[in-house]
Design goal:
The structure holds 2 protein chains of 2 kinds.
Chain A (H helix, E strand, L loop, with lengths): L1 H10 L10 H34 L30 H34 L4 H15 L3 H12 L10 E4 L2 E4 L2 E4 L1 E4 L3 H29 L5 H23 L4 E4 L2 E2 L4 E2 L2 E3 L1 H28 L2 H9 L4 H31 L3 H4 L4 H13 L2 H30 L5
Antiparallel strand pairs in A: 1-2, 2-3, 3-8, 4-5, 6-7
Chain B lengths: L27 H8 L4 H27 L13 H4 L7 H13 L7 H19 L6 H21 L7 H24 L4 H23 L15 H26 L4 H16 L2 H15 L10 H25 L2 H9 L4 H16 L1 H14 L11 H9 L9 H33 L4
The chains are: A alpha+beta, B mainly alpha.
Chain lengths: 403, 439
């Protein structure tokens, strides 16, 4: 009888604890998180405030207006130690980062595609050479490679008076690569206009060709026409102008002086080392991305294209590559971002990029640690987000539309 | 309906001769014709590749082996003008400096402690990575708890000297924690005994750890300023790995959680850290960590980049783990729930084991990246392998033209052996895991 009673009492509706309510738990956990994070930030903030007070560092972004007073070896905008502010120094560093990243991305993409396709070559020797390249470059830290290029390869170059002459006005010495600097006359506007017309024309032709192909199935030589319009038109304009009136583009050649080369355009060895290092390193990763993308296109696609009577070149251009691109683009985006972020290693070899100029020199001179770190990280975050946004847009346009 | 067709006109009566076998179906010559010279373009490519090899390989072999100098005490053996023949890599320099490259300025009499640390690390790595090793659960406990504590004591000398006041506070805090857990269990109608046991377990684990660090083992204290070389490189990598795996898993779970604030916090952390270069994280840790702490505390110079690397690696690990979590079919979650498992049980017993197994290659790849990235700590002034090489490179005792190349070659070899070994391992694991998918 007693056992029955206990069973009954257990079976009666259990004491409903509001602690069992998932909603209550969710609120509790998240409140705990918010409290902890707020507490940490509050502690850090008050400590930082105290420490800054003690070090007599005024917080705020006013220091950006102060005169910088240090020189930067490569500047794309007018800059002088005496007249420019920390804000200008920031811009110089930012532009230098963007330049080396942009050029690096172009070169790394070209080299990466070549190596990636070479790894899939039916030629055993070519495939193995590409494989060794990828394995070697991927498994050695980029910093070490940069130091190697900068100190071991570019370091022993001769002094300016013994410059290595490479012909066509190109000289190489310990101070960098010297090359002819173009001087533009006022007529250069005509060439720019020709370029603009060429680009617009190429875009219009591509649209028209696509529509015609959809209507009639006829294919046009889009690539050739584009090349002719974009590259050919300005070149023709240049030649015509040079023949008819004065040459719109002349070159300031570097000349050998007693101590240094005079004139021309100088490219810093730091820039060369950083560019070479970033390009070869990232290309190894891009090669793997490309290889994976091409391998992801099933063999049936190639066979189907073949059975339709397409030539191997057409198969590659019209069937394999468009499908491979869909697989390639997302990881390729991360490689572009990695390259941009890795350009911050410039600090190790002294190329004046954002981190070297701003997080290095400016931070040390002003002691404005928080502001400088926030600005620098903000810049990289913005670059990352903008890049991934545009690549996502492109990716969405290229992605398979499933029906 | 008999339409007899005279087949004799169409069917051959006599046997035709068998064709001779193809002259070159196999063998080296056929292989070469197939793979190297199958057409004019391929022949050209082969010749190009051969030329490339001709340009690169002989100088490298000559530099690394043929012309290399293996023994000697100072620069005189490695200078072309002093020995009278071309000099390649100066391995004598490496041999002379190998202790500096390995231990930095760690006191010579205490270097056995570093060697023991290397040995313990090797045991932990093999235990965890060798898929058929016995009791890999114990291996995890060893690697993530015993090994860090023992290493800390070995390398620093232990004897943290907390003092009596600290232990009193610890005892009170422990008692409060246990009481709180018991109270929570009572309020939740759960087993109070389990709650007390769990609380006591946590307190005991933390207590044992702290007591071990506090205990005086009579080891000479070695400040981190003296550590250097491969020792520091391996420490930064190991700390990154030991912290990034659990933190990364927590962040990944947070990102996939249904709680909006928790998810938002995880997403912000992951995307923020992944969007900035490691070097800025390191500089931030270096300059801002002391700023954010109370004025009277000081952070060890080696600890700052360690915190930075751990954060950085966690964010990357979180994304790898998230990939694994997303790959687990929904049925697994539903099955776990229908068994009545709660969230931690579902994750620990059902989802995570499967998810982590899928992403082992990704985890190893993150480790490879982390291992290479440890070289960046040299930029913020930590004496890792790169920094020791940079310091030795300009030693006037060894002033010779090929010293820089030799130093970099040594470092490259070190990193390559580790990273390449790890990538081979991950390929092996991938193949093993794929074997189960084959039908």
């Amino acid at each position: 009888m007693g056992s029955v009673n206990t069973v009954v009492s257990q079976a009666s509706p259990p004491k409903k604890s509001f602690l069992y309510d998932p909603k209550v738990r969710a609120v509790f956990y998240q409140a705990l998180l918010v409290v902890t994070v707020t507490y940490l930030f509050f502690q850090a903030g008050t400590n930082a405030y105290d420490n800054l007070q003690r070090a007599k560092i005024a917080s705020g972004f006013g220091f950006l207006e102060t005169t910088a007073g240090f020189d930067i070896s490569q500047t794309l905008i007018p800059y002088s130690a005496a007249g420019s502010s920390y804000g200008d120094a920031f811009l110089v560093g930012l532009l230098n980062t963007l330049v080396v990243s942009a050029i690096g991305i172009v070169f790394a993409t070209v080299l990466g595609f070549i190596v990636g396709i070479a790894r899939l070559s039916t030629n055993w020797m070519v495939a193995k050479v590409a494989m060794v390249y990828v394995e070697l470059l991927r498994n050695i830290p980029l910093l070490l490679q940069l130091l190697f290029w900068y100190i071991a390869v570019l370091g022993p170059l001769p002094q300016p008076r013994n410059s290595i002459e490479m012909g066509a006005g190109f000289f190489l010495n310990a101070r960098g690569l010297f090359m002819p600097r173009p001087i533009f006359a006022s007529d250069v506007a005509a060439i720019l206009a020709a370029l603009a017309i060429g680009i617009v024309g190429a875009v219009l032709f591509r649209r028209w060709a696509r529509r015609r192909q959809e209507e009639t199935g006829r294919q046009y030589r889009v690539g050739l026409v584009t090349l002719g319009l974009v590259l050919g038109l300005p070149v023709v304009t240049w030649i015509v102008l040079a023949l008819v009136s004065t040459n719109p583009i002349s070159f300031d050649m570097p000349r050998k002086g007693t101590f240094n080369l005079q004139g021309g355009m100088q490219i810093l060895p730091e820039f060369v080392a950083l560019l070479v290092g970033l390009t070869t390193y990232t290309a190894a990763f891009i090669a793997e991305v490309v290889r994976a993308g091409i391998l992801a296109v099933s063999k049936g696609q190639t066979e189907a294209a073949g059975s339709l009577g397409l030539k191997p070149g057409q198969t590659l251009r019209l069937v394999v590559v468009p499908q491979a691109m869909r697989v390639i683009i997302p990881p390729l985006t991360s490689q572009y971002l990695n390259l941009t972020k890795n350009s911050s290693l410039a600090v190790a070899i002294g190329y004046p990029d954002l981190v070297q100029v701003f997080m290095g020199t400016v931070l040390n001179q002003t002691g404005q640690a928080i502001e400088v770190v926030v600005i620098t990280m903000g810049v990289y975050l913005t670059i990352s987000l903008v890049t991934s946004f545009f690549m996502n847009v492109y990716n969405r346009r290229m992605a398979i539309v499933e029906r | 309906m008999s339409t007899a067709v005279d087949m004799s006109h169409y069917v051959r009566a006599d046997k035709i001769e068998a064709l001779p076998p193809p002259k070159l179906a196999r063998g080296p010559v056929a292989w070469m014709r197939e793979n190297l010279f199958s057409g004019p373009v391929n022949t050209l490519l082969t010749l190009l590749a051969l030329y490339l090899l001709y340009v690169t390989i002989p100088p490298v072999v000559r530099f690394l082996f043929t012309d290399a100098v293996w023994t000697g005490a100072d620069r005189s053996v490695c200078r072309e003008d002093m020995v009278g023949h071309p000099v390649g890599a100066c391995w004598a320099f490496i041999a002379d400096k190998i202790n500096f490259f390995t231990y930095g300025s760690y006191p010579a009499a205490e270097r056995w402690r570093v060697n023991v640390f290397f040995g313990l690390l090797a045991i932990g790595v093999v235990w965890l990575l060798w898929l058929r090793a016995p009791r890999r659960d114990l291996g995890a406990v060893y690697f993530f708890w015993v090994f860090p504590v023992v290493s800390y004591i070995l390398l620093t000398g232990g004897n943290a000297d907390f003092g009596g006041r600290f232990w009193t506070i610890f005892a009170i805090a422990g008692a409060v924690l246990i009481a709180a857990l018991a109270a929570a269990a009572y309020a939740l109608n759960a087993s109070i005994r389990t709650a007390i046991l769990a609380g006591a377990g946590i307190v005991a684990a933390v207590g044992i750890t702290l007591a071990a660090i506090d205990w005086d083992f009579d080891l000479l204290p070695v400040p981190t300023a003296l550590w250097g070389g491969i020792l520091v490189t391996l420490i930064v990598a190991t700390v990154g790995i030991v912290f990034s795996l659990p933190f990364g898993i927590l962040l990944a779970l947070g990102r996939r959680s249904r709680l909006p604030i928790l998810r938002l916090a995880s997403v912000i952390f992951i995307e923020f850290v992944r969007g900035v270069p490691l070097i800025t994280v390191l500089i931030m840790a270096n300059t801002m960590l002391p700023l954010f702490l109370p004025p009277d505390t000081s952070v060890d110079r080696l600890l700052r980049p360690l915190v930075g690397t751990a954060f950085f690696a966690s964010a990357y690990m979180a994304e790898v783990v998230r990939g694994g979590l997303q790959a687990i079919p929904k049925g697994q979650y539903e099955g776990a729930m229908s068994l009545g498992l709660n969230y931690p049980q579902m994750m620990i017993f059902i989802v995570l084991p499967q998810a982590l197994r899928i992403v082992i290659p990704g985890i190893v790849n993150t480790f490879i990246g982390l291992f290479k990235d440890t070289s960046l700590v040299s930029v913020v002034g930590i004496f890792d392998l790169i920094k020791t090489i940079e310091a030795s490179r300009i030693d006037p005792n060894w002033a010779a033209p090929t010293i820089s190349y030799t130093g970099y070659a040594f470092a490259a070899l070190f990193y390559f052996v580790f990273c390449w070994g790890m990538s081979r391992y991950s390929i092996g694991v991938e193949r093993r895991l794929a074997a189960g998918q084959k039908r």
